[in-house]
Design a protein that fits this description.
It is elongated and about 105 Å long. The strands form 3 sheets. A 5-stranded mixed beta barrel has the order 4-5-6-8-7. The protein has a 4-stranded mixed sheet with strand order 11-10-9-12. The protein has helices at 12-25, 41-48, 61-70, 75-84, 93-100, 114-117, 127-138, 142-154, 157-173, 178-192, 198-217, 219-229, 234-247, 287-300, 306-312, 320-328, 339-344, 346-362, 373-376, 389-400, 413-418, 427-433, 477-483, 516-523, 534-547, 578-586; strands spanning 251-252, 264-269, 272-276, 437-452, 458-466, 469-475, 492-501, 506-515, 526-531, 549-561, 564-574, 590-595. 46% of the residues lie in helices and 17% in strands. α9 crosses α10 (178-192). The protein folds into 4 domains: 12-199, no CATH class; 250-376, DNA polymerase, domain 1; 409-515, Nucleic acid-binding proteins (OB fold (Dihydrolipoamide Acetyltransferase, E2P)), CATH 2.40.50.140; 524-595, no CATH class. The longest helix is centred in the middle third of the chain and has 20 residues, at 198-217.
């Protein structure tokens, strides 16, 4: 007799799986994970590509690299990798891979052990194998074999000596050579200290298979489930956003009339589905307030305009900060295109909501007369100029934690080509042709972490983002000191760096930083400003004087009739970066700004 030990593990992964299944059911897709066959080809192909970001136990860069080399084809391979990828046994991963692919012969130590070790290509991986070897080779009972396993794990010399004598004597009685038996004991003892429980590994491997299956076959629902469980973790959401870009899955911007409180799958067109951003995932808005807004929309239909929104929300559930964050993120664009206008009128919206709420609760008409109910319920927002694009994106970044609707570098497309800037997505391809390549990247600074080396010198890791993804640049002390002021979050920089291949990513060592607008001004040649009023010319002149002189020629293009334009070149060269061009475009009377 004995006691059966059960381990109950509360894993977030289980909730992710159930959330994904719930999202799939909304598309009438029913999958019983417990009934899945363990031979799904797309799942093993996904693992063989190392495409396992978000897959339980298989996410780390080292594990992904091992999977790419292994190219698993059966469930037993997953169980083995879960067991081997730990300090100690991971030294056996290369041999496991070599034997699987026929590049090396398996060593079973003794013919009697082949049935035990064949599944793992001659490598002892599981505690159960230790016990089976003792039973088959030396005649141990099951209980005695477990005592042997525990003795080997504790490595108490007196106990080991005792067990060696029992093991070797038993093996000799089974017609095994004494010296060979002693050698096998040493091999088993070496392994037993870090042997993994196979049943435990198999349970974890099954979860790995289930998550891999969903990612391979239902990636939109699977990734939406991961985001739902991480809705309060901006860093995790940013990482998932990158994975969505790599997978070609569209992440739709937050929308007060389409978003739910949490992440949802939404049909884009035909058979294409994307993920609609969750209202509650915006910074500082909270889940309950967003649930109250969604509940109102479900009960009484989409909001028609900002007045309708203010008339219907519960002012005790929603505050000014939450309305501002929704506006900064672009959630009200379906009702009002001007994000700044809604942001700066947030207090007014809330006061209006409180007035309407009070009227509804008191069930009274306007006691002072002179106005109808419809006049009372109409909200008039104060007029405010729109943010220039760069300011709009900064506000969006503050609300979401990353750029979603666009990227600050989008307006730099032409000058970046002139500067021969590479995007981070293209760098791995360059490294495949040549290691330690000098690259020039442009990006916005997201964060900076400074550390001290062994000799006390400071160095830094700077996280940056371009339109294709995020990247990390290592900055050593000789460059860090003169560049520190530039390496602040939100700054747009041109980076010269040496790129090399890391475990599962690109390593970048910075050699030079330069403010991007300065680099663009240095490389710029011609900007055409199309104007339609004389007033615009004076506004342009004032703005350029504030910008200062630089290297960009400005041409004014004035349409004097339907079929005639006049082009005027301004006498000096001016410093006009992306923000300057955006400011020009926002001026009254300016139709367009075109960079040549």
């Amino acid at each position: 007799a004995g006691l059966v030990k059960f381990d109950f593990l509360g894993l977030t992964t289980l909730t992710i799986l159930q959330t994904a299944l719930n999202l799939m059911s909304k598309r009438d897709i029913a999958v019983e994970l417990d009934q899945l066959e363990l031979d799904d080809k797309p799942t093993y192909e996904l693992m063989a590509r190392g495409d396992t970001a978000g897959v339980f136990q298989l996410e780390s860069s080292g594990m992904r690299d091992a999977l790419r080399k292994l190219k698993p084809t059966r469930f037993e391979d997953i169980v083995a990798m879960v067991s081997l990828y730990r300090p100690g046994p991971m030294d056996n991963i290369p041999k496991y891979i070599s034997v699987k692919h026929g590049e090396e012969e398996a060593d079973y130590l003794h013919p009697k052990l082949q049935p035990i070790l064949e599944e793992t290509f001659g490598i002892m991986i599981y505690q159960e194998q230790v016990m089976q070897i003792a039973q088959v080779l030396s005649g141990y009972s099951l209980g005695g074999a477990d005592l042997l396993r525990r003795a080997m794990g504790k490595k108490i010399q007196a106990e080991m000596d005792k067990q060696r004598e029992i093991f070797v004597t038993g093996a000799v009685e089974q017609n095994v050579d004494k010296d060979q038996a002693s050698g096998i004991f040493d091999q088993v003892a070496k392994f037993a200290g870090y042997g993994f429980n196979k049943s435990h590994a198999a349970a974890y491997a099954l979860l790995a298979y289930h998550t891999g299956y969903l990612k391979a076959n239902y990636p939109v629902e699977f990734m939406a489930a991961i985001m739902t469980l991480a809705f309060e973790n901006t860093d995790k959401l940013g990482a998932v956003r990158q994975e969505l870009q790599r997978l070609g899955i569209t992440l739709l911007s937050p929308d007060i009339n389409k978003s739910e409180a949490l992440f949802e799958v939404e049909r884009i067109n035909g058979e294409e589905y994307g993920i609609r951003y969750a209202l509650a995932a915006l910074k500082g808005v909270g889940l309950s307030a967003m649930q109250s807004i969604v509940a109102e929309r479900r009960a009484n239909g989409p909001f028609k305009n900002m007045s309708d929104f203010a008339n219907r929300i519960d002012p005790s559930a929603v505050n000014r900060k939450q309305i501002e964050q929704l506006a900064r993120a672009g959630a009200f664009e379906c009702l009002e295109k001007n994000r700044r206008k809604v942001t700066e009128n947030a207090e007014k919206i809330l006061r209006h909501a409180a007035t309407i709420h009070e009227e509804k609760n008191s069930n009274q008409v306007n006691l002072f007369g002179g106005g109808s109910d419809s006049e009372l319920s109409t909200l008039h927002l104060s007029e405010t100029p729109e943010w220039i694009k760069t300011d709009e994106l900064k506000a969006e970044f503050d609300a979401i934690g990353f750029y979603l609707s666009a990227h600050p570098l989008d307006s730099y497309e032409a000058p970046l080509k002139r500067l021969k800037v590479t995007d981070i997505r293209s760098v791995p391809g360059q490294l495949a042709r040549q290691q330690n390549t000098r690259v020039q990247l442009a990006g916005v600074v997201l964060s900076r972490q400074e550390r001290r080396g062994k000799r006390g010198d400071k160095f830094a890791f700077v996280q940056m983002s371009d339109a294709t993804g995020t990247f990390e640049v290592q900055v050593y002390s000789d460059l860090l000191a003169p560049s520190r002021d530039m390496l602040e979050a939100g700054n747009l920089l041109l980076v010269t760096a040496t790129a090399s291949s890391g475990d599962d990513n690109v390593r970048l060592r910075a050699h030079r930083f330069e403010p991007l607008d300065e680099a663009v001004a240095r490389a710029s040649s011609l900007v055409e400003v199309h104007v339609k009023t004389a007033e615009a010319v004076e506004n342009i002149k004032s703005l350029l004087q504030r910008q200062g002189e630089g290297r960009t020629t400005i041409k004014l293009v004035v349409r004097v009739s339907e079929d005639r334009e006049v082009r005027l070149e301004l006498g000096k060269r001016w410093s006009v970066g992306a923000e300057g061009r955006a400011a020009l475009k926002s001026l009254a009377g300016v139709d367009d700004v075109i960079e040549q």
